[in-house]
Design goal:
binds fe (ii) ion, Four Helix Bundle (Hemerythrin (Met), subunit A), 4 helices
């Protein structure tokens, strides 16, 4: 079980983005819980879809602000978003084909949350700083 709670170390100092990150963490925790409580592949796939819908929405929010502010590191940032999206699609396909195998469950539990936390601390924080320095206000 990945039991990660949002805390100030994850704050990008942009309320809208922080709010979306909290929701994403919650939806990833729900997937992990579905895996750990041995839910059927259908249920797990649904939690994955529910999370990926929100991830798409969240990424497009960030990307809109990057474009509006001409963010210099946008290309690299978008690439990471694309990698996450394609990994989630692969997981959904694998679950549909193979069912809820322990290996898949484990990869979900480690990959999704680790990716998000690394992504926030690695490059979303930088983006938040950039937004502030470019005079962005919510
Ligand atoms: Fe991001």
């Amino acid at each position: 079980m990945v039991d990660i709670k949002w805390d100030d170390s994850l704050s990008v100092n942009v309320e809208l983005i922080d709010h979306q990150h909290k929701e994403l963490i919650k939806r990833i925790s729900d997937i992990s819980e579905a895996v750990d409580t041995n839910q059927s592949p259908e249920v797990i796939v649904n939690t994955l879809l529910f999370m990926s819908e929100y991830a798409d929405f969240h990424f497009s929010t960030e990307e809109r602000h990057m474009k509006e502010q001409n963010y210099p590191a946008m290309e690299h940032h978008l690439k990471q978003h694309e990698e996450f999206k394609s990994m989630v699609q692969t997981m959904i396909m694998d679950f549909k084909e193979e069912g809820a195998t322990p290996a898949l469950g484990k990869s979900i539990n480690t990959y999704l949350m680790n990716w998000l936390i690394d992504h926030i601390k690695g490059i979303d924080l930088k983006f938040g700083e950039f937004l502030h320095s470019s005079g962005f206000s919510e």
